[in-house]
Amino acid sequence: xxxxxxxxxxxxxxxxxxxxxxxxxxxxxxxxxxxxxxxxxxxxxxxxxxxxxxxxxxxxxxxxxxxxxxxxxxxxxxxxxxxxxxxxxxxxxxxxxxxxxxxxxxxxxxxxxxxxxxxxxxxxxxxxxxxxxxxxxxxxxxxxxxxxxxxxxxxxxxxxxxxxxxxxxxxxxxxxxxxxxxxxxxxxxxxxxxxxxxxxxxxxxxxxxxxxxxxxxxxxxxxxxxxxxxxxxxxxxxxxxxxxxxxxxxxxxxxxxxxxxxxxxxxxxxx
Amino acid sequence: xxxxxxxxxxxxxxxxxxxxxxxxxxxxxxxxxxxxxxxxxxxxxxxxxxxxxxxxxxxxxxxxxxxxxxxxxxxxxxxxxxxxxxxxxxxxxxxxxxxxxxxxxxxxxxxxxxxxxxxxxxxxxxxxxxxxxxxxxxxxxxxxxxxxxxxxxxxxxxxxxxxxxxxxxxxxxxxxxxxxxxxxxxxxxxxxxxxxxxxxxxxxxxxxxxxxxxxxxxxxxxxxxxxxxxxxxxxxxxxxxxxxxxxxxxxxxxx
Lengths: 271, 255
What we know:
The structure holds two protein chains of two kinds.
Chain A: H1 3-10, H2 21-44, H3 56-69, H4 71-103, H5 105-119, H6 127-134, H7 138-162, H8 166-174, H9 179-214, H10 222-231, H11 235-259, H12 267-270
Helix pairs in contact in A: 3-11, 4-7, 4-9, 4-10, 5-7, 6-7, 7-9, 9-10, 9-11, 10-11
Chain B: E1 14-24, E2 27-37, E3 42-46, H1 53-61, E4 68-74, E5 77-80, H2 92-98, H3 106-119, H4 135-147, E6 153-157, H5 165-181, E7 185-190, H6 193-199, E8 202-206, E9 213-218, H7 230-243, H8 249-254
Parallel strand pairs in B: 3-7, 3-8, 5-6, 6-7
Antiparallel strand pairs in B: 1-2, 1-4, 8-9
Helix pairs in contact in B: 2-4, 4-5, 6-7
């Protein structure tokens, strides 16, 4: 073993910048506090009428109310359920289709224009169809999330597969990886880092779409909560729902980020 | 298929090209190549970049079918690439296990794996991923994969070209040592004349596109060789001459 080897062995395989807790928390906290201050300031000096601009105190009060009534928790579970089902359905279909299209140039040529076409259709355009086909309840919302997530996900995975360095397939040829084994042992792990990134983006889209999807055809959910607040001119309640939507969105993204820390996908983010 | 006994001598490999030509559309790359590699021989093909060396290796490995001519190939063939020949999502251990795919007996697999890691001096790195290793270490892992199990013929596509000079010198010695322990038939492609004459039993000089073999040199001195050994220097001179790169006394006097 020579000197360089020793160095590699003794050093941390993943050198990280030391970021102290204070540094990591202090600056975002400062931004948050200033934002709250600006909000408070705008309300205090009556730049907008109070019915159009609820103050931080109003929102806090409304939070307490919603939690005591139990409506907020109910709406959170309803929305999460729809997003998770829509997300699973679209990724369950999009990942295999994306893998297949990525490997098969002929079918890629055939399907690409159609996929691109649907990608540019706002999922909200499907609302009338969603209601006519699936009536009310969970189904139309799940359908809209599916329509929003499926096309960009297929395209992302397809292009990831199509750009796998050809050397991996030459190595695979040397070691007799063929057919299904080639797919699971070479193609899939080669694009896994990009799949994880695509899933994070798609989840973001799904979480944005759920609000709009629940404004029609639903009797509960976070989007419905905002719609109801609007109808009752209770913008304090609407802001309280908006805060919850943002926080849950961030929280779930934190969970998805954990997948990028798996040792066998680190390579995709480090070079 | 694997018969359970490690082959320690590759005397039953066969590799030859008969009148092989290849072209990509209008571009003729190889022209009427004839080459027979004897079992256990280390043949180095040396030529300028873009002269079709990689095409030739792809034809030898069977990855590419030649436009005309025939290839005779007996034995398991594996290739060492310049870089990225390891799967980045597998650890060192898992990558080496690829070379042992045909060994089904678990304890034999484990033993062989341990022996290979010791052979390339990478104990302690079994669970590292390729991106956590230096370039030289990665190429050592590649060498261990291709000599793993029951391979017969090794094709090497500029395996050390991406390394710095000192590491390259060290890797040449390493390759000689590995082949001493596990003899294989080797076709080694490089643009590096010094590397060619340091390693080869036989050097084939490839002329520019469309490539043909313009010169053949036998080097019989014992390996490992220094770049400064007489036989190595002599052979280098001959190849430099062949490429028209040897500086003559005339050139020196002109300046």
